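Rotation project, supervised by the postdoc (A.L.). Task for the rotation student: set up a whole-complex structure prediction and record inputs and outputs verbatim in this book. Inputs entered:
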Amino acid sequence: MQFCSIGSGSLGNSFVVQDNDTLLLVDCGFGLAETEKRLANLNINAEDITAILLTHEHEDHIRGAFSLANKHTIPVYLTHGTFKMCAKKIKNSFDIEYRFIDSLATFNIKAIVVTPIVVPHDAREPVQFKFETDATSFAIITDLGYGSKNLIGSLSNVKSLVLEANHDQEMLNQSEYPESLKIRIGGRYGHLSNHEAAKILKEINAEGFKFIGAAHLSDKNNHPDIVKKILGDAIGKESSFVKIISQDHGIDWVTV
Ligand SMILES: [Zn+2]
Ligand SMILES: [Zn+2]
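Outputs recorded:
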């Protein structure tokens, strides 16, 4: 299985998972033109996308999703809750095939087994995803307040992981953000701090992982070097082992 990202952060998130001829786009938080441009930079033709999977309705995850799905006739997988919250943003003229996810049930997209993972986040029915083939198991986990028991259990067999490392708690506390926003971001239904991310890596024994990517970094309240150090320490590895998935460039293809 291979993975890449066309960008991750509060301005837009989108990840790509590939196994043979199956190409999954996980979230599509950039506008249509920007998404197509960024996909082309990684030699991906939107026509070739098998399915779009949406995690939740926040704009940084769905901005271009429905336009892309409509233009290229790509089915969209999402929970009923996410669909309901997105409904107003979907143009009447769009002709899109929706496949509704039961957030507690595994499903298949060709040879990839997809497991939705319910996460604590301030959206209607948010999930994140684990992808399994005969060869490997990989998960992309962003937009969550903390590592719930359910999440830890779901990640017990993964070999590679993309995990949110949104903010450094101290930098967030010191920031210019209004108090209400600080509470939202740092809260149980907000975003994962570096230390919460490190705690998850320790709890799932990620020392032997093939790949660890850090995503959804705040550009104001975090720094890639801090993330690499804290997550590297959590798994007993050099900082350089931890790869940053950036807002501007995402990350190039890696085998997971
Ligand atoms: Zn987000
Ligand atoms: Zn979100």
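Student's summary: The two ends are 6 Å apart (CA to CA).
Supervisor addendum: DSSP finds nine helices and 14 strands in the chain.
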